[in-house]
Structures are given as C-alpha cells and as structure tokens.
Amino acid sequence: MQLMSSLRTWYEHGWLRAIDLSLAEYIYTKLEQDAEPVAVLAALVSHQLGRGHPCLELEQLRADVTATLQLPPEHASSESLRACASAQQMIAELGTDIWTKLADSAAVSEANSPLVLQGQERLYLRRYWDYEQQIKRDLFARMERHYPVASEPVASDELRETLDDLFGRSGSLSWQRLACAMAVRSGFTIITGGPGTGKTYTVVRLLATLQQHRPSAEPLRIRLAAPTGKAAKRMEDSINEEIKRLPARYTEVLTENQAVTLHRLLGTRARSRAFRHNAGNPLLADVVIIDEASMVDIEMMAAITAALPPDARLILLGDKDQLASVEAGAVLGQLCEGAENGHYAPELATWLDATQSEHASGDDKPEQSAQLPRKLLDEQGKQQWPYLQHTVMLRESRRFKAEEGIGKLATEINQQQTTWLSEWLRDASQGQVTDSKLANIQFLQIRKSSADSLKKLVLAGYQPLQELLQAGPAAFTDVTAWGEALLQQLEQFQLLAALRRGDWGMQRLNELATLWLHGDRVTSEQWFVGRPVMITHNDYSLDLRNGDIGIVVQASPDEPPRVLFRGHKKGSLRWLLPSRLTHVETAYAMTIHKSQGSEFTHTVVVVPDHDTPLLTKELLYTGITRAREQLTLVCAEPKLVLQATQRQIERGGGLT
Ligand SMILES: Nc1ncnc2c1ncn2[C@@H]1O[C@H](COP(=O)(O)OP(=O)(O)OP(=O)(O)O)[C@@H](O)[C@H]1O
C-alpha cells in the first residue's frame, strides 16, 4: 500500500481535513527516512486535534484503532468505504517497528521538530505540547505559592472568624467554607459543582475574605472573565447580586466588578492568535476568576496562565461534568479528575479542619461532623493528585433537589445510572409518571421531528414572545421597557438540539419552528420580524460576541426592523440594523454546545432518532442542566437516551 496516496484518498472522501493532509505532505517532503509512516502519524495527530484531542493517545490507538480515530466517519458513503483503506489497514501498514522508528525520526527528535513524542504514550503537535507544558509549569508554581494569611501551619484565628462571619458558625461540614479556606492558602484554586451548588456564593465570600486579609492597604485588583459574552454577563450579574447580600463591613472592601470575555481580558490582536497580554506584558491583577471554565480549551488556558503575573491568584469556577470546549483539550475535566473522592493529603485536611467553626462549648477543636470525612483523605494525595489539593467539589444544589425532577435526571445521567432512567423513560413515554416530585420533567416520544406534538409544544412555548412582538412598545412605558421584556422572554423557552444537522438537528428545527410560527412566507434564513438570532463569530467592530442572542423587532411601521441585543452597560439595549450583522443564525433552536453558559426557564432537549458517537452523557447532562424550571426531553426512541448515557467522552492529554 502506498501510504501517502491512501492518505490523499482519505482526504478526497472527507475522512481528513485539508490541514491534516497538508501537515502530512509537509513532513513527507522534509524527511529522508520513514517519511511515509511518520507523515501518516502526523496527519492522525492533526485529525485528533480536529476532534478535540490535544494529542494522539498511542496506547488507545494500539488497542482500538477505529474507536480512537472514529474512522470511517459516521456518514461515510459506501463509495468512500470501497475507495478508502480502513484505519486498521493503514495502522498495520505502518509496520510493527514504527514506534521505535518514530522516536528516532527527525520529525520528533530534533529541537523545534513539528511533533513531540511523550514516552511511548502520546504524540503531539509541538504547539499543543508547549501549551500543556506551559499550563503545568504555571499551575505548579502557583500551587506552591503560599500567602501571608496562610503562612502558618494552622489557620489563624482571624481567618476562622472571617469564615464564621461569612458562612455562619456551624457544627456541620460546609464544602463552600472549605473551598474558601483552601483558596486562601495558594495561588490556584478550582471550585467545581453542578448548577446552583453555590459557586458564585462561595467565590464572593472568598473575595471578601481575600480583601479582608490582604497583605497591603491597597484593595486587591480583581478581574472576572468567562469564555463567552453571555457567560460573562451572567457572572457579573450574579456576583454583584451576591456582593449586595454580604454584611455591610465586607461591602466596604468589596465593590461591584465588571466581567468580560476571556478574549477581552487578554486583549485580542487583529489577524493574530497572540494576545496583547502575555508573559512580557502581564495583566494588572491580583485575583483572576474565570467562570464556566469547562469551556476553556488548552490553547486559551495556556494564554491565560502566561498572561497572569506570578503572584496573582487564579480561581476557576465551573461544572467539570459539562461538555468541554469544541476546541482541543478538556482542561477543567482533567484537572478535576478524581474530585469525587477528595484525595486530600492528611496535612491539608488538618489545616482545613482547623479553619472550621470552633466547638460551641468553646473547645478550640472543630466539631467532629465539621471535619473532612476521613474517606476523602489520601496519604499519597499530594504526589498523585496534586491539582486536587487545590480543588473543592460543591455537592449540594440549592436550585435543584437531588431527588426531584431536573436534579434527579441530571444526576442519574451524570452518574451513568440507567436503572432509574429506563424506568422513568418507560413510564414517561406512556404518560404514567405519578411521582409529583418528577412533575417538572417530561418525555415526548415522537417518530418524526415534524410531529404535531412537537409543533404544539413549540407554538405554546413561543406564544408569549409572539404576543409581546404584536403588542409593540405602545403596551409599555417606553420602547426600552418593551425591549427588555422581549429579551427576558427569549430566556423563557428554548429548543436545544444534540446535533447541528440532520432531521432532528438544530438547522431543521429552526426551519420547522419558523414555518410553524410564521407560515411559509418567510424562511429561517431571512431577516423576518420576530426572528431570534445568535451571533456565530466575534465581531469586534460591533462589539458583539460569538453566542450573543438578539431578536429582530420593528418598533413602529415607519421604522426599519432592527436587531435588539443587550448592551454592555447594565440595563442598556442596542438596536442594530440587520445589514450590519454578518455571522448570525436563527436561534429558535440552538445546539447544546452553543447553549453552554446559558439557562432557560423551560428547556426542550431534542435527541436525534439514531445513535451516534456524538451522543454522550456529557451532552445530555449539559442540555438538561440548562433548564431552570422545566425540562422536556424529545426523542424517537428511549433506548437512544440510555445509549447516550452509557457513552462518555474520553479526551486525551497529559495535564494530569
Ligand atoms: N450556603 C448558602 N446559604 C444560603 N444560600 C445559598 C448558599 N449557597 C448558595 N446559596 C444560594 O443558592 C443560589 C444558587 O447559588 P449560586 O448562584 O452561587 O450557585 P452557582 O453554583 O454559582 O450556580 P450556577 O449554576 O448558576 O453557576 C443563590 O441564590 C445563592 O444565593
């Protein structure tokens, strides 16, 4: 077999991207020895990157070629299956001694070679290897950095008093308080937890603690950021709301803060991947908090860590169980690996225990029940689980009760427990769920995505929006109040599609919703009044971000339609002419990926009618946890929900 020609056939049939083949061609022309097999491996590393993996995991590849590479692709035509060599044939053709040859190849062994081989385990493109090394170096340095307030082996009385003040004196274990105490000790902290577990509540109290115990008279410079504009806005609102609830003496030291996107924090440069802030021009900050950190990819995390001054604290907030970014890497997921089991080193546990409330009797030891459960301690914790010494997983949702509706469904899917799930799917599909605790979750089984019952659901869900549009500004005190009501209504009901394309995908659902709501006089791609839209690329000239949501409105018949968005200042609105917007799509339905960082009162998650490797428990969990009050799961076959629940995303990488 001619390896390079087989690779070209793969590209011609859409099995590889142009960039994967170009890299292989480049390496092929440069190498004098073993050019073909090494070029094939380079193409595969690049192919994996396109699928979100920062490297090619060699053990996995040797164990299961098809599953590792997901080749042939899902929709491969029978013609391409005939024309293309299988992935197994290709790997077999590389020869059994390829791994030794690879280690000696100029493509991996020379300084600045395009590939990096880590042991016999992982093959990287150098750029991604560098990102990983940068992140590890930086986080380890930050984790080792202790601050004046925590320089003593046991917590100071002042710290315990502040925590008592902010969290209340209690004889029982508070994970939130623990997270706060842990974060005081070092320059890097992760606070992870599902929706409503109090990440914001905790981080606000952490900021108050840090301000209270800051080493100098100057207030700490705090920067808040999130991957998307929407997530930044939510973060800003909820942090500032929570600050107002603090006792007055803390609001004196902790004032309101603005949150920005990560791109804005680091400062984008036109036509460049590099940012204005970097190791040579670090951010002016003492504390940087990043929300929705599960969406941060490896390249962005490397840029963040590079741009932080060495003595700044980095605090990541997010739900480790949510989908990772579409770009390569699952940074938060990997750093939090094992967090359920704590793995805290005994000396850390002793310190943390000492920060809990004193015994009510005045004994200066914390109550037994306020101590970290001993089963979460690990003698080897510091060596084997270094990041977990800086990670707290919040375990109790204040928004969803674990045994009720949305919370129950999300937990069962997240923990891949299919017994309860299959019973619920069976009963719900027959309309036989009697448990009132499950009233806020419904299952709608339909054979076709154009089914009448889905149409009824969509018409009812979007009716209040239609009514607001028809009522116009005359029904409100002014046009701004009308605009605000419209934008709030957009958060009330939302269709989320597991896939982008296909009969049950986002695009088709948008076509159907447009047809059902507006008839056939418009199509989902036109600028019709009432069209909800999502920005799909950052537009720096208009200051709009990927993921921003707006709606086409017409305030009066003699004015042209405008697209209404939220402004950056609190309570402000923007009314833009549609012709100024270049990258938008209709947003009656959006993909679950795009919905990350948002919440909707009633969320409808639509699962496709066939199984696909893209259908995973992370995808379902992320979609379901977008629902604030009500969730409808729509699917042709309950068994597809069970299959998705059993499938977990495995992203490689050597961060841990
Ligand atoms: N210990 C607590 N005592 C009282 N109220 C709390 C406590 N922890 C959280 N809350 C409240 O519970 C609600 C959810 O908390 P919060 O918004 O901090 O959660 P979150 O994890 O940040 O949620 P999200 O999923 O939106 O990111 C808020 O109203 C918050 O004030």
TrEMBL record:
Transmembrane segments: none annotated. It catalyses: ATP + H2O = ADP + phosphate + H(+). It comes from the Bacteria. GO terms for biological process: double-strand break repair via homologous recombination. Residues 185-486 form the AAA+ ATPase domain. Keywords: ATP-binding, DNA damage, DNA repair, DNA-binding, Exonuclease, Helicase, Hydrolase, Isomerase, Nuclease, Nucleotide-binding. GO terms for molecular function: 5'-3' DNA helicase activity; ATP binding; ATP hydrolysis activity; DNA binding; exodeoxyribonuclease V activity; single-stranded DNA helicase activity. GO terms for cellular component: exodeoxyribonuclease V complex. The keyword ATP-binding applies. Belongs to the RecD family. A helicase/nuclease that prepares dsDNA breaks (DSB) for recombinational DNA repair. Binds to DSBs and unwinds DNA via a highly rapid and processive ATP-dependent bidirectional helicase activity. Unwinds dsDNA until it encounters a Chi (crossover hotspot instigator) sequence from the 3' direction. Cuts ssDNA a few nucleotides 3' to the Chi site. The properties and activities of the enzyme are changed at Chi. The Chi-altered holoenzyme produces a long 3'-ssDNA overhang and facilitates RecA-binding to the ssDNA for homologous DNA recombination and repair. Heterotrimer of RecB, RecC and RecD. All subunits contribute to DNA-binding. This is RecBCD enzyme subunit RecD. The lineage of its organism: Bacteria, Pseudomonadati, Pseudomonadota, Gammaproteobacteria, Alteromonadales. The gene is recD.
